[in-house]
Write the structure tokens for this entry.
Amino acid sequence: MGAVLAAVLGVSLAGCSSTGGKRAEERAAQAAGGKAAVHTPRWTFAMVTHSGDGDTFWDIVQNGAQQAAVKDNINFVYAHDKEAQRQSQLVQSYIDQKVDGLIVSLAKPDAMKDVVRKAEKAGIPVITVNSGAAESKAFGALTHIGQDETVAGEAVGDELTKRGKKKALCVLHEQGNVGHEQRCDGAAKTFKGALQKLYVDGTNMPDVQASIESKLQADPSIDAVVTLGAPFAPTAVQAKEQAGSKAEIDTFDLNAQVANGLKDGSLGFAVDQQPYLQGYQAVDLLWLYKYNSDVLGGGKPVLTGPQVITKKDAAALQEYTKRGTR
């Protein structure tokens, strides 16, 4: 009986392996080879973000979205504008084109509220990413994918305190961005020292450097500078060097330069919100909704961060930042 039972179990397990497991392997191979892993209709999903030109963070988001689009047989299109009104107009243009799904960031939610609701009324499912977690559900989106910016800021405040810092400068590079304010306010909440905000024009790097440099020269007691985006971290390092300051430079977000900075010690730590996941999951969840009416989150945001990255993590992450997925 034992031998018979073992034989039956062996056949059963082999059957599972040769169907589900084999199909999963085939799907993975197809996606890796640039082929769709599904046979659903070729829906069009559009992503519209508040990114400015040349922002490496959004390049990583797009890389994730495009990889999921290949796997899910999706025609993926992307547009962006840092001006909220123009971002709203871009969303409206995709509504007019009757796309099958929308992915939208809500850095300035008041300007996006009406157009997101128009999409929902038009029967176009919307997923919000990166910013606007508090407003996403009220605007009619299926779910929000990103990090809780207040929680991320609190993690920064805790890390600064752990490192013995006494006076920090939080550099905001986009006025009116609710997520940026939440990051700095969250850091101020948990930081045991004093934190000041510095508003700069993020579209003008020489201005960013000059503003940080001037602040560090005027107040040598500042021992930490926190930038809110990876592209601004190297600029803050240059400002520190020009000012002759000993402040530690820390940052939100990760890219190849930040990973290198963590490794060589020019940066103290980074807070990673895994932008690749934000793009990948947004496309994949829209596909799941269209295919199977699935929704993740249970009314709460699907969190991709925060994760505090330090020098000990940098070497392992460099490989991924070079290929544009972290």
About this structure: The first strand starts at residue 44 and ends at 49.
